[in-house]
């Protein structure tokens, strides 16, 4: 009997200790890169979301570039090794992060995905996914393009990292909508690796090689900024219809001066804010939804100063 009581006491102590570790644990927020206003806005949301979550701390990190996938994998593995309470992850590749996520799952560390999804083989290793509906956002961008350029002509697609979950949905939605609702011919896509300077050079080349280009789509923040700068430098601003993605200060300036006609702005702040809160809900065994749409707002010159736009611009 005494042995049984000792065993029960030990089990209870283990459970209490495990709960204490979680309740005083680190929420590791790991994003595609720390060097982007978009991801820094995610950090702002996560920082605000941590307020009132007593007993928890947050760390925030990301690789130097979105294409440094191996570095992001290492960050997740390091988080697992230091026994964090939960991981909020924006995976830069749909497959490469799955083994590290599996290690977290085996260590009973909850994973909440934001922004981009992983392949179906990793579905069991995360508890919730918060993001823009990227396919729907891509469709909205395509509709905005058709409304401005019409049904025929050439449209260039300036994308970022091939195969990234958000890129598949976003550019896929854009291309599919154009194919279904117009006869527009697509030039590209071209991949900037989320480097503004690369996007600028690629856009400059595309504009030079296609003097009859009617429209151009920049599918994420650094790509759209590079696209806008190339349009301005080449004298094509306002002459080629440009639709961008995300909403930093550069892109807001391009909307106001007419270089870019519309930008699809995601709820990046909400991804951070709700991401950490969802992670804590999982730790504390509260119900969470498997997928949550954090929304997108199409921002143009006519509505850029309206509350709906100001709530998502950064």
UniProtKB/TrEMBL annotation:
Pfam family, one: Peripla_BP_4
Annotated Periplasmic binding protein domain residues: 27-286
Cross-referenced InterPro entries: Peripla_BP_I (IPR028082), SBP_2_dom (IPR025997)
GO terms, molecular function: carbohydrate binding
Keywords: Signal
Localisation per UniProt entry: Cell envelope
CDD domains, sorted: PBP1_ABC_sugar_binding-like
GO cellular component: cell envelope
Extent of the signal sequence: 1-22
Primary subcellular site in the record, as a coarse category: other
Family note: Belongs to the bacterial solute-binding protein 2 family.
Protein name in UniProt: Monosaccharide ABC transporter substrate-binding protein, CUT2 family
Source species of the chain: Paraburkholderia tuberum
UniProt lineage: Bacteria, Pseudomonadati, Pseudomonadota, Betaproteobacteria, Burkholderiales
């Amino acid at each position: 009997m005494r042995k049984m009581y000792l065993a029960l006491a030990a089990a209870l102590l283990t459970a209490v200790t495990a709960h204490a570790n979680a309740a005083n644990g680190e929420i590791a927020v790991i994003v595609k890169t720390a060097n982007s206003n978009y991801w820094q806005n995610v950090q702002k949301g996560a920082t605000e979301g941590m307020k009132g979550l007593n007993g928890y701390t947050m760390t925030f990190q990301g690789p130097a570039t979105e294409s440094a996938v191996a570095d992001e994998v290492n960050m997740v593995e390091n988080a697992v090794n230091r026994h964090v309470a939960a991981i909020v992850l924006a995976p830069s590749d749909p497959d490469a992060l799955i083994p590290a996520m599996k290690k977290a799952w085996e260590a009973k560390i909850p994973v909440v995905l934001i922004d981009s999804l992983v392949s179906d083989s990793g579905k069991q290793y995360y508890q919730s996914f918060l993001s823009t509906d990227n396919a729907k956002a891509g469709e909205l961008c395509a509709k905005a393009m058709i409304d401005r350029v019409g049904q025929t002509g050439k449209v260039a697609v300036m994308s970022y990292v091939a195969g990234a979950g958000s890129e598949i949905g976003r550019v896929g939605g854009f291309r599919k909508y154009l194919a279904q609702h117009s006869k527009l011919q697509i030039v590209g896509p071209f991949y900037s690796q989320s480097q503004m300077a690369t996007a600028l050079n690629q856009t400059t080349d595309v504009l030079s090689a296609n003097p009859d280009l009617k429209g151009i789509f920049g599918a994420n923040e650094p790509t759209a900024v590079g696209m806008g700068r190339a349009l301005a430098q080449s004298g094509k601003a306002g002459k080629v219809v440009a639709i961008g993605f995300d909403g930093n200060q550069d892109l807001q300036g391009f909307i106001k001066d007419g270089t870019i006609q519309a930008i699809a702005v995601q709820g990046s702040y909400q991804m951070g804010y709700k991401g950490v809160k969802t992670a804590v809900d999982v730790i504390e065994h509260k119900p969470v939804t498997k997928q949550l749409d954090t929304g997108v707002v199409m921002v143009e010159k006519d509505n850029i100063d309206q509350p709906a736009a100001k709530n998502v611009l950064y």
